Amino acid sequence: MPGRPPAAPNPAGAHFLRDRGLIARLVRASGAGPGDLVFDLGAGYGTITTALSASGARVIAVERDQRLAGRLRRRFDGHPGIRIVKADLRRVPLPRRDFLVVASPPFSVTTTLCRRLLGDPAVPLAGAELILQWGAARWLASPVPRDAETAWWACRYQITLARRISAASFLPPPAVDAAQVSVRRRPGATPPAAQRELRRLLRAAYASGQEPLDRVLKGRASGSPAVPDSALRALIAAAGVGPRTPAAAVTAENWHQIGRRLAGRYGGTG
């Protein structure tokens, strides 16, 4: 039951969220409701799954540990809106229709999970409320992305750090605090050609470090860029970024605006 210590040893590295008030806020923040498909990734003892089921959403609870998955099946047996899947969240198949994620996954899989949910344009993630380790949450939600990969995620999703969460909210308590991270899909579609051009630009920008963007454009030799440097300079200027701005200082919002303008050039709705 929520708030009660597990009767058996925890799976390695697992920390179970026990704050029912926080879990209720997570579900409300997600906007999950009737007709929505929601994944609880790393469902554990089912506290988040229980709260999600009350929203009327269809819930897929994914749990790798065989003992816990069996316990979840017994607990939710006969519930028409909940499906228990024994699988590794790093490899479980994801749907082709829009879905939400509300989860407190193991801290050790944060980067892998973000790559799955945020990195692939074919994954139709509509939004997520995630409980992540405090340091990971800070870099993920930083206004200035730390690398080309997180900048790519920020072009497609608005990522915000909602609140810090005490380690005491978990059983057993982790060594560090956690945070609630909110992820929302940005509006508009980006055609594949624009995606390739944007990723090429991001790789060149972050490889250059403190070089200004106008110099970065000269180094985009890989792959024969389809957008001329002059046109890309105009797009960058229209996004509010000066040509002498160091590539490493460009904000997530700036990259999003650059991506939107690239999408428009290729006929997208960004």
Features of the shown structure:
270 residues, seven-stranded mixed sheet, elongated, 9 strands, Helicase, Ruva Protein, domain 3, Rossmann fold, single chain
Please tell me about this protein's structure.
- This protein has helices spanning 20-30, 47-53, 66-75, 110-118, 134-140, 148-156, 192-208, 213-218, 229-238, 252-265, and strands spanning 16-17, 37-41, 58-63, 82-86, 99-103, 125-133, 157-165, 170-171, 178-185.
- Helix 1 crosses helix 2 (47-53), helix 6 (148-156) packs antiparallel against helix 7 (192-208) and helix 7 (192-208) packs antiparallel against helix 10 (252-265).
- The strands form two sheets. A seven-stranded mixed beta sheet has the order 4-3-2-5-6-9-7.
- It folds into two domains: 16-185, Vaccinia Virus protein VP39 (Rossmann fold), CATH 3.40.50; 192-265, rRNA adenine dimethylase, C-terminal domain (Helicase, Ruva Protein, domain 3, Orthogonal Bundle), CATH 1.10.8.
- The longest helix is centred in the C-terminal third of the chain and has 17 residues, at 192-208.
- The protein has 270 residues and is α/β, with parallel strands linked by helices.
- The radius of gyration is 20 Å and the shape is elongated.
